[in-house]
């Protein structure tokens, strides 16, 4: 039998994929994996440094490889970076998986990412950039998602419990 994640989380930066994913994995008693962390481990440096040293295109190449590897080998909760859905290859790879879109509107996303530290795409003008990214990606998150959970005004613990209930057969 092939290994597949119990749940893949997608959504905009600040939607809570890393935070809610960690809480969800704990609630389910499974491992949590985040393709951003996989990429940093492989590259041996933080994501902002990858963007500075090699550029976004190189990051996206590493991300496609990280998404494919994690989908094929991780049996727990998987979070992918907010921009993973931009690649057709990643959207195709997500077909057949349980994919939960953590939706967030601009006000909560802005509050959560603050000045964009650690997110190189948001380093300049986080609010306007986030608005642009979210407008561009909303249809892509909807395309890959098998369920959508609204995160605005909800705590990570509430969201983890809601998703855990959703995943029960
Ligand atoms: N539901 C939530 N309510 C309030 N703050 C949240 C929520 N989810 C995440 N956060 C906070 O927002 C920030 C970004 O969360 P993170 O999990 O890194 O998002 P993502 O991985 O989707 O970019 C973190 O500081 C986190 O503590
Ligand atoms: O939106 C994006 O394109 C990105 C989101 C980040 O992950 P989070 O969504 O976890 O912030 C990270 O993959 C990288 O900085 C690029
Ligand atoms: Mg994250």
UniProtKB/TrEMBL annotation:
Catalyzes the specific phosphorylation of the 3-hydroxyl group of shikimic acid using ATP as a cosubstrate. Belongs to the shikimate kinase family. GO terms for molecular function: kinase activity. Monomer. It is found in: Cytoplasm. This is Shikimate kinase. The gene is aroK. Pathway: Metabolic intermediate biosynthesis; chorismate biosynthesis; chorismate from D-erythrose 4-phosphate and phosphoenolpyruvate: step 5/7. It comes from Micromonospora aurantiaca. It catalyses: shikimate + ATP = 3-phosphoshikimate + ADP + H(+). Mg(2+) binds at residue 18. Keywords: Amino-acid biosynthesis, Aromatic amino acid biosynthesis, ATP-binding, Cytoplasm, Kinase, Magnesium, Metal-binding, Nucleotide-binding, Transferase.
